[in-house]
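User: These chains co-purify. Model them together.
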Amino acid sequence: MAAYLLCLTTGGGVPLFSRTKGEIKTLPFAVIGTLNGVHMFASTHNIELLATQTKDAKIAWKVCHGSITLILVTRDDGGSDACLRHLLAAVFDAMVLLVGLDDLINIKNVERLKRELKCCYKLIDCLLDQCNSQVFGDLTGAVDVVLGQENTLLQGALEGFVEYADSTYGCLLVRGKVAVATKKWWGLTGMELVLISLLVSTLPPGSSRDIPVFLPQGSPTVPHRLCTLQLTAGVEACVLCGPAPSLARLSDELARYWRPPYESVRSLAQLHPRNFSHHLRIDPNILGFVLVNTEAHRCLCSVQPRHEDSRREGSNLSYTRRRAILRSFYKHTIGHVYAPPRLKDDPNLGPTDDISERLLHRPQETYMLFDAYKCYSLQTAVYRLFVLYGAQIPHYALRSVTRKTLEILTKDKQVRL
Amino acid sequence: MDVSVANGNREKVSDSTDSDSIEIEQPEWAAAVQDRGDLFYVEGKSSAERIAAPVESKTNGKTNEMNTVVNNNYNKVKGLVNKTKHETDILRDLLTDHVPHSVSFYDSPTGKVIEVYLDVDPTRRNYGRRASRCETLFGIIPGHFSEKDSNGLSNRDSVDDLRIMVQGLLPSGEAERSGNVKLGDWLRCINDFEINYNNVNSILSAIVGPKRVKLTLQRFDGKQRSPHVARKEPINAGLVKLVAGQRLQEVTSALQEVPNHIVLYLTLEGVSENAQGKEDVLYQYPAVENKLVEIRGMFITLVHMMHDVTASSPISSSLLIDGKLVHVAYSREGREALVLGLPADRVPLYQLKNTMEDVVRLMKVLYKSLGSAFGDRENKPALDHLFSLLFQQLLLDSSPTTKAEDKLMQTPLFCSAFLESLQAVRWLPLPDSVMVRINNSLSDLEAADFVDMSEEFYSIRRFYTILGTCLFHKGYLIANHLPKEDLLDVALYLQYYHLLVLTSGDPVGQVVVWKEVFPTRRHQGADEPVIAGYTEPDGRWFLLIVGMMHDMLAVLLEAGGCATAAEGAPKPDPFYVDQVKNTLLELQAGGLAADCETKLQSPSIPALTAADYFLKTASKSDKKAESSPKPESSPSQRASRTDAPASILKKRPPSQQSSAASLGSLAQAHDRDSDEESEASMQSGAASDNSHSLREAETPPHPRKLTSTPSDESGSSIFKANKKKRTMISATSLTSLKKSMVDLTVSEDDTFPKLTRGCENTLFHYLSTDVAEGVFVCPVTSGSPSCPLQKQVVTNFNTCCMAIRTVLQQSTRRSAQGGKFSPDDSLEGVGEHGILFSCPTEGKRGGQEITYWVVG
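Assistant: Joint model of the two components:
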């Protein structure tokens, strides 16, 4: 996704950083100044400029805590403003996660802040670079999960390990997707869950890491230690803990807790990229799907639901393309048809003008038919399922297959999303 | 009234030419013609209130002296069309034939008793065969009391109530002239005889000669008067005044209470740094200061800077002013920009964008370009008028649209926002026989073959060529002889000047509009001639609109080309106005109004049902289905089961499965459903050929039970008729513009089990747009107060259409764009988009589903 992200101090309009994604030229400094200038001009009249739309692009302004101005310029992909607002909120939270709210609100030394913010670049780039992302969490505000079969065993091991770390927050990540987590971990907000998972997957690979993080909602000013320890290729155990114990002691104890369920861990690693247990069989026409649990902030996505080469049925959509289609479909649906998920952390969201708010009745299902593929989506009280089908499936089957898929994925006793 | 009268009128006109009696009687609107030659004349129903408003326009500013030669010829022709009084009489006859407005009343014992003396002469006046004695003598249209008794008294009163109420006053009747008789008065006595409905005619028939009659009226003070009475006059008169621009001041003050709306035309030209004055504002309405004016600098900066950022010009912005969301739309022309800002709670963004496009187009049609429209100070009154109408419509709750809503139950004005943004005209398809007649009349007019009255007869080159006409009735397009672009131009004009709303309400006396226009088709995108070797003639174009009663006829005239080139600022030619008027009269005499009314009142094909109805029946039928477990064999049950999922495709909502499928014994219900399914599939299938074939391809796998019962056949026959009609529509559009045509058909269905099979129908509402022709068809919704849900459904439907349309438009637009940002092709080629709703009401689930079709 081609996009510019500009970050300036609200008070002085000093640029803190600017990120450019996609094959576009960086914006000249003067233009950045004008973009910020119009917003400042409006705010001197007590008017807040929120967004501007051009024929093919959208620009959104956001002032965070009265000190940081974010300006996002991106292609108008037909998605609703809700997705744009969500992205801006995610970017700011990412900054809080790594720098802390205090430094962002009370800017004493701009140069120092600039240096500190450099560590956020990778995470922010990851948020901006949506199409190449392997996960959907940044879009849905719900953390990506892996549905494995032997979760009880792993859960026990995790609980023990986390307890040893003198913490209650811990999870097992499979390539940036949560496999199991402690109850407290699930208590984090959706945005925190997503950002921590993303952060871990964007960090340079290593057998163990220990980095300070702030929780954007939980503790925006007091940092915690995020320790990650690699169990096997692609599987990491994460713990949010206080000053003790040291990373060295944690890695020493690693074997004690994770040796017994090692086979389970290995089988878990193999779930990628299908992301859900092999015993769940879904319709062969499904090329990919995203299932969002809006209450628990979890989402499950898969664009390779089948083992064998899905090119069998002449569907020549690459996995990246499938993800892009699902993303677009999601963006079109949220805000336009379904109400966007409310961000708890954004109390002053202000009035919005999404089409979904003008609908008098609750939409339940929606679909789009394309030349080469079909998309169907349904929502229940808790779940939202977006499915991408090949072109072969007859129209009338879309609905029943989608319903059945939802049933399969959510009603299984062993694995619950 | 029949055609012969109209002909007689014509003969009379020609008589006067033969005798060459040059007694030129100016038409009523003559005084309203502006120096520039423009005319905007609106006359209410009552001839007493005649309002003419000047609408100036920008013309080339040449003086009138230049065309003295033309004027000489002019006068000659003017003499030909010496109008006789006769036509006014015809008009009056028409007026009286029209059923007067409903006026209801509070029953109150306390009322002022008034005595009125009228000089009546039964021999003097004849309003036509249908006028009652009361009308003939006094000019009073009698009516019943307590039709809408708000005291809570039951309607039986109205049966017993024989009192006569003054329901209407005839123009220039005795009663109206006296000025003492008011609408809603109770006519108690005539010459001290107590009268009622039973004896009134016998008493009145006793009056045979000219006589002075004493009327005793009882009047109820304004407080007790029902809102209907109080509002009666304002609706028509108010709207007429409004449209004519007489209430500008009133509207402006009312609008001040709605914050955050503005029209600005800004320029960068000649603006110095730190300009405190408002040199940069070329045009502003309303003229009051508000926040949006203060930050105009931001708008102009945005407009000019955006190109550097995104390589495309901005369309809109969203602002937060005092916690309220306000949307601002831009349109850039050179170094100038038009800015339109409106609060979001009244006007959503997508509507604002469409409004902006429309305004820009209208400006270009009327003034050739935005610069010439706003740059010229002389246009200011006209623009103020236009924008006051626009804001009035968009922002004020007491706008004419909503106010008139109660009165015109047939027009779904509550969803007008979407419909108006369709860039299409609402079309009312009439039976072929009627259309032939209408088309004949219009063609006659267009041929401009006025025999001995034409310019040809006097060896003068004709002044104008009639390019085409289009006819509206109550805001619906009846017939169109204009190319699509021209039609849209005309429709925009009518819409933004509220003329369509005006005619859809109470009948208007007379509307005459004359305006030089710059049709879009000829001024934009005319770089290369469509047909090689042919170029559109270079001339000037004039729009002539004549309206009477509920009808409005718009005529596009061309000067230049094969007609005389127009010089200066021609005034409306009475001859052409009269010809158009005659055509209208002829059409009206031919029963146009009746035809249209029949069509409007008749249940539409495809038949529609109100959502509320299903709620009532659902519970019953559920019970019935439950209590009567069908001893049907399991295979058939399975068959119907498989049908139910299939229904998805056929736009069947899930409520069936969720509510009914839980009971295993609903084979019967499913059976019915499958019947309806095939019907429904036809409905949508007929919408376009493409989708139709698609449907047919799908139907075979499913057992169709259409032939099983006679009632089924009746059901299917309805849809056959429907199908025929619809395919006809789509066939024409398909052939005319295969590729770019976006034929959207929307149907909403509901699948509640029915008590009786076959005779019910599950289509709530539909909309079919034909971009190629610029028309859309949609049923006349009966927004009766008993169906709040139906209203909701339709409103929802329209909102959804908007969303879906956006998606579809985007998918078609994308292929043509090459901006800075690489287009996202993942959603290209949307074939169909549907949304399923459920509305929980009283525990029942009513599902509606919307589908869209794009052929291409």
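Chain A touches chain B through 72 residues (CB under 8 Å).
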